[in-house]
Amino acid sequence: MTGAFQASLLDTADTPTLTPLAGTVRRTHLPHGAWIDLRPSWIAGADPLFERLLDAVPWHAGSRRMYDRVVDVPRLLAFYREHDPLPDPLLTAARDALTEHYALELGEPFTTAGLCLYRDHRDSVAWHGDQTGRGATEDTMIAIVSLGTPRPLLLRPRAGDSPTRRFDLGHGDLLVMGGTCQRTWEHAIPKSARPQSPRISIQYRPHNVR
Ligand SMILES: O=C(O)CCC(=O)C(=O)O
Ligand SMILES: [Fe+2]
């Protein structure tokens, strides 16, 4: 093996790369007009991206009101509004590729990026729909890129009339929730019983969807 070939092999392994989306995304239709698109290993060679985000993102504890108390949510957060520079050029490229791929169906760009850091198996997100803003009343899309330790994303219908669905999100995977998903279904990342290393989730949303 020549030195140059070795270098190029290392290069692909070490440089996070977006692979093409067209023709590689598998859609699952759910009852009530919701759907899930899945593209395993969308980002190849994602290890350095994961490390960079762990370091570079200003992670902070989020909080929410629970009755008369304010409690920390069980994960760390960072939110990038429209026009905020993202913490890594690959996250910008991913957002733009998603905007392009879904342009006809979505009719508007993905503009914001919410980041979550699940530090270990005890971190989680409880059952919810992204229903702040238009998510409560209109069809929209939320695209999630998952990095690090695989965790399942669970979905259950609000009407309780069909079984909970499980999508395993691995390192570099893309999952897109679309149609009525935020209104007619809820999603969650459950705690795990077994110790786990960290996971980072990046959620891209259109204007005024949270
Ligand atoms: O961690 C994830 O992939 C999902 C996070 C989520 O549902 C949210 O932040 O609204
Ligand atoms: Fe969510």
From TrEMBL:
<dbReference type="InterPro" id="IPR037151">
    <property type="entry name" value="AlkB-like_sf"/>
</dbReference>
<dbReference type="InterPro" id="IPR005123">
    <property type="entry name" value="Oxoglu/Fe-dep_dioxygenase_dom"/>
</dbReference>
<dbReference type="GO" id="GO:0051213">
    <property type="term" value="F:dioxygenase activity"/>
</dbReference>
<dbReference type="Pfam" id="PF13532">
    <property type="entry name" value="2OG-FeII_Oxy_2"/>
</dbReference>
<keyword id="KW-0223">Dioxygenase</keyword>
<dbReference type="InterPro" id="IPR032854">
    <property type="entry name" value="ALKBH3"/>
</dbReference>
<keyword id="KW-0560">Oxidoreductase</keyword>
<protein>
    <submittedName>
        <fullName>Alpha-ketoglutarate-dependent dioxygenase AlkB</fullName>
    </submittedName>
</protein>
<dbReference type="InterPro" id="IPR027450">
    <property type="entry name" value="AlkB-like"/>
</dbReference>
<feature type="region of interest" description="Disordered">
    <location>
        <begin position="190"/>
        <end position="210"/>
    </location>
</feature>
<feature type="domain" description="Fe2OG dioxygenase">
    <location>
        <begin position="109"/>
        <end position="208"/>
    </location>
</feature>
